[in-house]
Amino acid sequence: MNLYTLGHKHYLGYCFSIMITKDTSTLRSESVKNYYKLFYINAEKYEVLLNGKKLLLLGPNLLYINDRDQIELHSVNKDECKIVYFHPSVFNSRLDFESCNEKKELSITDKQDLFYLEKFKWNVKNEAKIISLNENSSLLIGQKLDRLTELLSEQDTMYWPCMSRTNMLEILFHIAQTGSQEGSILYLEQGDSSLVSKVIEYLGLHYGDKITLEQLASTFGTNRTTLQNEFKKVIDKSPLQYLTQIRMKIACTLLKDTLIPINDICDRTGFSDMSYFVKVFKKEIGITPGEYRKTYNNID
C-alpha cells in the first residue's frame, strides 16, 4: 500500500511524501515504517496500544508516532481519527530518520527544521508522544487537516505541494509552541490558568489576525497596564513583542520551506502593509524577507 500522494492534475505521477487518511487499516501496511505518523483523534474515550503499553485516552489528542513505534487503535471509528503519513525530507531534503536522531553535521537551518520534529525522535517517551488538545486547538487543527485533505485530493493549483507542506508546518508549529518547553519562545505548561498563559494560547491561534494591546486587554477582561506588567514579569516581553516573535518565526519558516509569495506571507502573519512587514522583519532578523528566502530556501 502506498502511503504517499500521487500527482494527478498538476505534476502527473509525482510522488509527494505526505498523505492523510481516516483509514486505520493503513497501519497494517509494511510501508508504515517508512513514515512519521501524526494522529489526530477526537473521541470521548478510546484505547491505544503504544509500544506494548495500553493507554486509555479521553477527548481530542495528537499522537506523534515515529518510524520505529508500534501502535494499535481500539474503539476509534473513522470519523474520529485522521492520520497524516509523512517523511521528514518533505520539509528538508537533507533530513531522514537517521539525521533526525543521530548527532551529524547539520547546518543552522537544518537544526531549525528539526525543531518541528523533536517529538518524533526515537528517544521520546510514550507519554511525551501524546498531546492533549483543548477545544480551540482541536478546532484549529481539525480545520487545517481538512484543508490538507482538500489540497492533496483536489490538487486544483500547481502550488498544492507547497501549500500542503505549509499546512503541516503550521500544525507542527502550533503544537510545538503550546506544548514544548524548548526553543526561543517561552512556553507555559498546558492547564496553567494564568492570564499570561491564556493570552499566549490566544496569540498562538490568532497570530494572523489584526491584534492590538487594547483588544487583547478587552478580550481578557483586564487593562493595558496589568496585561503589560504580567507579561513582563513572566516572560520579560510585552504581549506585542511576543506576538512579533511568533509572527517572525512563522514568516521565516514559510520563506525557508515554501514558495508562497512574500506578499501572501505578509498577510498570513498578520501584517496588512508590505513595507511595514519588511521593516519589522529586517529589524528582528537582520535581513529582508527576500534576502532571507534567497539565502535559506533550497526548494527547486
Explain what the structure shows.
By secondary structure, the protein is an alpha+beta fold. It folds into 2 domains: 5-134, Jelly Rolls (Sandwich), CATH 2.60.120; 195-296, Orthogonal Bundle (Arc Repressor Mutant, subunit A). 43% of the residues lie in helices and 16% in strands. It is built from 11 helices and 8 strands. The protein has helices spanning 97-101, 108-114, 135-154, 160-179, 195-206, 213-219, 224-235, 239-257, 262-268, 274-285, 289-296; strands spanning 5-6, 15-16, 18-21, 36-50, 53-65, 71-74, 81-86, 130-132. The radius of gyration is 20 Å and the shape is globular.
Topology:
Elements: E1 5-6, E2 15-16, E3 18-21, E4 36-50, E5 53-65, E6 71-74, E7 81-86, H1 97-101, H2 108-114, E8 130-132, H3 135-154, H4 160-179, H5 195-206, H6 213-219, H7 224-235, H8 239-257, H9 262-268, H10 274-285, H11 289-296
Antiparallel strand pairs: 1-2, 3-7, 4-5, 4-6, 4-7, 5-8
Helix pairs in contact: 3-4, 4-8, 5-8, 8-11
